[in-house]
């Protein structure tokens, strides 16, 4: 812009200069031409008077800068101050002579052969009919200009320098206020009046942009707050698969560090399943797949985003389905185990009943068979009860009513209930500790303590002891069931809490175990936010602690 103004100013300056020189020269040339003609006319009048009075003598004694010629009435040259009249042609055809002959005076201008000069002629008729002609030459404009080349060049250079300096200053002065414009705050700008409408428009547009930016910022914050608090992962892609937005849930679920800005989505996961899912969704196909990340199962839901029937991007949602998967797996296994566990006693009952009904059993053996049927059906009942308890706990125990429970009371009741069994097994049962009142589900707490004590009696030796201690703590407290029975091998200690897991399957069944007792303890503890700790040494005994917060 500055350079353009500078160039234009220079061009104007130079044009004005050249035009001025041309006009000036033209005017001057015209002026001097007229001056010369006037001087020649005066001189011609004087010479004519002199010749009329003195004849040739006047001319002989005359000294003049003009060329003087005396022409006879027939055009013959009588005298010439420059050339020999004898060598000169007849002048009757000359324009100024003819004009003078007709009137008193004639004038003419003629270019020289080289065009370098212009000659002015003034002819005056004397009283005797002869004509006196004065001629004077003037250089043409071109010659004049050529003769003035040097000073003109100097003037041109000076003009150029002046024009350059002035053009530079002018362009700077014109541009400076425009450069100094503060477009962020156009209302504070003190500049050309002509720019005022533009500045007003910029201010209005700034206001609109500001409001829109604020709104966008608010929306973005709301969106980020929403997505950041999601436990699910969320990724927004453009149509080329570049990440436009993501939340921290994504990084946590995929176990990756934040990707670079506008990185390709494959930077988050390079597995085949993820790549295929992204490829499909960017082709407009909604799909989902499972990803295994660090032992966890993540479900990926990929949805394309369309604009004008074209895929404009995609939304990926990642959900941790590990628990759901494990739950489903556990349920499948549980159903299979339950069917198996129920089938065994039922098959035995049905078999024995069939033999009796066929009359294949001697009458004296019938009581024995009936006792076995009773034992198996008791096992079935115990199993079904445990399954019912477990499924209630699986549902989160929402239908179970909580109330104040004294765990010492629960322990005493349990010991009472188990006393016959303990006596039969030759095991001594004892309760110690103080009252521990807490908010809980009485039936579940009773079942938990019963199962632990039942195990401590069942998996014990004759003459063994089982001690139940209830110890109130500062906020919660704990219930400990310790026995000096057979103990649990170290490698099984983790697994005894699994459903239907038994260390010695045949022995457990023999003594009426369902394999669900400790599972119920574990779930019951979770319902009361309690912790279960098991310490056991094979051949020495087992201690299980229920720690209530
Ligand atoms: P069960 O009904 O078979 O007793 P549980 O879930 O109560 O099932 O216990 C699982 C297994 O853990 C038992 O089969 C047994 O092998 C072992 N176990 C539980 N408690 C004890 C204990 N106090 N001493 C020794 N082994 C035990």
Describe the structure.
By secondary structure, the chain is of the alpha+beta class. The chain has four domains: 2-147, PAS domain (Beta-Lactamase, 2-Layer Sandwich), CATH 3.30.450; 231-319, PAS domain (Beta-Lactamase, 2-Layer Sandwich); 325-394, Helix Hairpins (Orthogonal Bundle); 403-548, Histidine kinase-like ATPase, C-terminal domain (Heat Shock Protein 90), CATH 3.30.565.10. 50% of the residues lie in helices and 21% in strands. It has helices at residues 2-54, 56-60, 95-102, 141-147, 149-179, 196-228, 248-254, 272-282, 322-357, 366-394, 407-425, 442-458, 505-510, 517-527, and strands at 67-71, 77-80, 105-111, 117-125, 131-139, 233-238, 243-246, 287-293, 296-307, 310-320, 403-406, 428-433, 437-440, 465-472, 477-483, 531-537, 541-548. The strands form four sheets. A five-stranded antiparallel beta sheet has the order 2-1-5-4-3. The chain has a five-stranded antiparallel beta sheet with strand order 7-6-10-9-8, with helices on both faces. The mean pLDDT is 90. The structure holds adenosine-5'-diphosphate (ADP).
